[in-house]
Backbone:
């Protein structure tokens, strides 16, 4: 990291050239909905490939220091959440329901606003993070939020209507409420969650837990919005990526938890992930299959 900054400070023209090229690419992607979706999917692919190296990537934000296992795990959860959003965009790219498109943009905006808020707060009030990395986060998230808002303005959802009848919709309501409550706890009581889940709590754990909490709240809003989808098949397209996100979380927790000597918090994490998995399985399997995708 220091070597990179040294090169950039030696050749400032590289900074301006890179920034100009990135701005041109951003504007070209921003001008077209299809390009923006492809860009989101490419981001998701990059998140997937970065998961095995999440511990090394975390060092960028920690100013070269190693994070403990708890910090690495929560950082991996954040990457999984962003991957899930990207895959939802890919899975629903052929939809004709504007409510689906609007809910995806709103979920992305809320999730990224939460990450932006956490980065700004860490930059202003925390000393354990790299200010350069946090500044890069702020710029990147602001550009992504602007893109989502730009494309959200083009969507008309006047013909959408709330529908809560049917087995699938009832499961969606319970999932939305559960996501909202868990996200509220993670965001509003991140200090308490860090106290009971980490042996040596630090501001790093609190910030990462709060960031993941914002993502869970965004998924809650998405679940409530899916009640306005015209077809239940579109709901399944949203919940299937979540199921794939929850599976490695549950496996990772079960693998690292000593069942005979586990803490209450570890039992809660394991049971919550299993409950979410079962809930997502119910929604996907109670929905008519959508076998053909474009």
Residues:
């Amino acid at each position: 990291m220091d070597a990179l900054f040294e090169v950039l400070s030696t050749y400032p023209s590289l900074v301006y050239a890179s920034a100009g090229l990135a701005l041109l690419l951003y504007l070209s992607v921003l001008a077209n909905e299809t390009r923006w979706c492809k860009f989101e999917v490419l981001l998701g692919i990059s998140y997937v490939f970065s998961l095995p190296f999440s511990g090394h990537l975390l060092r960028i934000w920690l100013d070269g220091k190693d994070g403990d296992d708890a910090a690495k795990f929560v950082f991996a959860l954040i990457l999984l959440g962003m991957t899930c959003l990207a895959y939802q965009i890919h899975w629903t790219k052929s939809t004709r329901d504007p409510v689906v498109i609007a809910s995806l943009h709103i979920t992305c905006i809320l999730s990224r606003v939460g990450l932006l808020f956490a980065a700004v707060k860490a930059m202003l009030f925390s000393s354990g993070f790299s200010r350069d990395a946090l500044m890069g986060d702020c710029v990147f998230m602001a550009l992504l939020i602007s893109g989502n808002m730009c494309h959200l303005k083009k969507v008309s959802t006047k013909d959408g209507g709330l529908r809560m009848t049917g087995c699938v919709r009832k499961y969606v309501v319970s999932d939305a409420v559960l996501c909202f409550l868990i996200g509220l706890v993670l965001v509003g009581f991140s200090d308490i969650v860090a106290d009971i889940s980490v042996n040596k709590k630090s501001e790093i754990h609190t910030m990462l837990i709060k960031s993941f909490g914002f993502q869970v709240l965004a998924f809650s809003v998405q679940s409530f919005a899916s009640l306005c989808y015209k077809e239940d098949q579109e709901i399944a397209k949203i919940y299937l990526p979540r199921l794939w996100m929850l599976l490695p979380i549950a496996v990772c927790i079960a693998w690292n938890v000593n069942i005979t000597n586990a803490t209450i918090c570890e039992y809660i994490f394991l049971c919550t992930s299993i409950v979410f998995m079962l809930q997502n399985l119910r929604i996907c399997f109670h929905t008519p299959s959508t076998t053909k995708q474009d």
User: Anything to note?
Assistant: Confidence is low (pLDDT under 50) at residues 290-294. The longest helix spans residues 98-125. The CA atoms of residues 61 and 133 lie 6 Å apart.
